[in-house]
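User: I'll paste a sequence; please echo it back and then give the predicted structure.

Assistant: Echoing your sequence first, then the prediction.
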Amino acid sequence: MRNQSQPEIRMIDIAREAGVSRPVVSAVLTGAGNGRIQASRETAERIRAIAAKYHFQPNAAARMLRGKSGKLIGILIDSMAPLVRFSLVGCIEKQASLAGYHIQIAESHDDPASLFDAYLHMKRHGVDGVICISHNYPDSKEKMEDLFRDSHDVVFISGPVLPGHSHVIPDIAAGYAQAAELLKSSGCRNPVMLMQNTPVSFTMEQRLAGFRKVYPQGRVEDIDLLETDTEILRQEIQSAVDRIFSGAERPDGILACNDLCAQMVISELFRRGIRVPEDVEIIGCDNDPFTEWSTPSITTVDQNCMEIAGESVKLLLTSLQSEDSRTVYITPRLIIRNSTKGKNA
C-alpha cells in the first residue's frame, strides 16, 4: 500500500513501471483513444495489476469529458428518514455492486432546493445517475416537478409520482390491507390504527388507505414519534394508550405506523397488564431487525427492500440510455409472528 507521505500515483508512473507509454495506460484503464490504441492481453493485465497495487483510480472528471461512465450511482436520502430507509441504502449498494457500480450518498431534510443542489453536486463529481428516496415532503410535489423537470437520470423511490420520471413505489396500501385482513380473520371488531402525527405525506396516506379498505369506519389515532427526548416520547405513548382505552369499547387490535411504535405500545400494554396477543393484537411495519427478537415477536409489514433496490438500479441504468419513464409497484410481504393470533387470509 502506498505510504500517505508519498506523492499520488499518476498514469505516467504506472506507464514507467509497466514499460509502456502513458496513452497505452490511459487506453487500458479508462478506454481513452476509442479503440485506436491497442495493448496485448498480457500488457493490459500488467497495467491493471500495477494500478491495483497502488490503489490507482482514474479521474472521474476526465472520464466524463471522454463520455465514459464514472460507474457511480448517487443516493439522496432524508437525514431524518426512518431506519428502513437506511436499510434500503444498503440494499441499493448491493444491487449497484452487482451491476459494477459504486455509490455516493447525500443527505437533506425537508428541503427540495437543497436536495436538488446535492443532485447537481453529485453530477459534477462523476455520478452517472441518482436514486432519490427523499422526496416525500408535504406540499412539495410542484416544486420537485419544477426542479427536476429536465433531470432524466433520476429514479424516485416512493411517491407522489412526478411526471416524466421513473418511480419504484412500495405498495404500502396493499401491505396494510393485508395486515388489516389478518386482524379481521382473527375476529378483531374494534381495531385502531396509529398514524404518525406529521403533515400529510404519501406514505402515511397509503397506510391509511390500506386500513380503510378493510375497516372503512375503523378508528384512527395520531401519535407523535418525532420527539427525540426519551422521557417525552414515553409520555406520548402513555397518552396515546390512555386515549385508545378510555372508551367503553376497548380495542382488540392495533395497527401501528411502524415497528418502533408497535414495540413501544406493547411495552406500555405489558406495564398495564394487557396481554398481547390474547387481549390485543399488534402489527407494525418495516420488519426492523428487533421485531423478530422482541417479546412477543412482532407481526409486521415487510416492504421488500431488496426488490425495491433491484428495480431502482435497473430503472436507473435503463434511464441512462432512454428518457422513457416507468412506474413499478412493489408488493410488501406480511410477516406473521407472535403479536397476532390469526392466520393470513
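Residues 83-98 form the longest helix (16 residues). The chain has a mean pLDDT of 86.
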